[in-house]
Amino acid sequence: MISRRRLLATVIALPLSRLAHAQPTCGEMTPRETEGPFFKTNTPQRITLIEPGSKAPKLVVSGQVLTVNCRPIKGAMLDFWHADEEGDYDNRGYRYRGHQFTDADGRYRLETIVPAVYPGRTRHIHVKVQPPGGRVLTTQLYFPNQPGNKRDGLFRDDLVMRMPDRSRGAFDFVVA
Ligand code: FE
């Protein structure tokens, strides 16, 4: 016959382990980073930032926007901006600037070019992520194995994209 003490232990342990399984965590919240001097509002809504005739290497960045409990966030806005193939930002127009919204599975897909590096920074892409009605997360994405990563004070390992090759980057944002 099962002892009263063991029975009690089982009754207490079960709900706790269930609770732990019911709330998986998608890891830490995506860290914030400075917006920098080149952000512009009112960007066009578009998936692709590739300019017609551009010979720069192409890059597709994709992933999901998730809650801390790993639930995909539908309709989250992502606003991307980055330097062009010369390392310059377009401060007059909207080249290499654009926003989009996640689909029903919280997914996004950005088609663009590999931004050139510019003095003082390692290679990066700026982004603002905002869940519907939620707070804006401003951050930056980095590329693996860049010589400039070690020298850039803003660089963070936890903002590096997974890149199976030079033309594909993957990154999931975890937001409040
Ligand atoms: Fe920048």
Overview features:
1 helix; globular; mainly beta; single chain; 5-stranded mixed sheet; 176 residues; Protocatechuate 3,4-Dioxygenase, subunit A; binds fe (iii) ion; 11% helix; 4-stranded antiparallel sheet
What report would you give on this structure?
The chain has one domain: Aromatic compound dioxygenase (Protocatechuate 3,4-Dioxygenase, subunit A). The protein contains one helix and nine strands. It has one helix at residues 4-22; strands at 58-66, 77-81, 97-101, 107-113, 124-130, 137-142, 162-165, 168-170, 173-174. Strand 5 (124-130) and strand 6 (137-142) form a beta hairpin. The longest helix is centred in the first third of the chain and has 19 residues, at 4-22. The N and C termini lie far apart (48 Å). Fe (iii) ion (FE) is lined by residues 36, 38, 121, 124, 126. Residues 36, 38, 121, 124, 126 line the site of fe (iii) ion.
Short description:
This protein has 176 residues and is mostly beta strands.
Helices and strands in order:
Blueprint: H1 4-22, E1 58-66, E2 77-81, E3 97-101, E4 107-113, E5 124-130, E6 137-142, E7 162-165, E8 168-170, E9 173-174
Parallel strand pairs: 1-8, 1-9
Antiparallel strand pairs: 1-4, 2-3, 2-5, 5-6, 7-8
The protein binds fe (iii) ion.
Residues 36, 38, 121, 124, 126 line the site of fe (iii) ion.
CATH topology: Protocatechuate 3,4-Dioxygenase, subunit A
CATH superfamily grouping: Aromatic compound dioxygenase
Shape: globular
* Top CATH class: Mainly Beta
Fraction of helical residues: 10-25%
Beta-sheet strand percentage? 25-35%
Number of helices: 1
Distance between the termini: 48 Å
The run of helices and strands is HEEEEEEEEE
| Count of distinct structural domains | 1
Category by helix and strand content:
mainly beta
Bound molecules: fe (iii) ion
Biggest sheet layout: 5 strands, mixed
Radius of gyration: 20 Å
Uncertain parts: 17-21
Average pLDDT figure: 91
Q: Say how many strands there are.
A: 9
**Do you know the CATH architecture?**
Sandwich
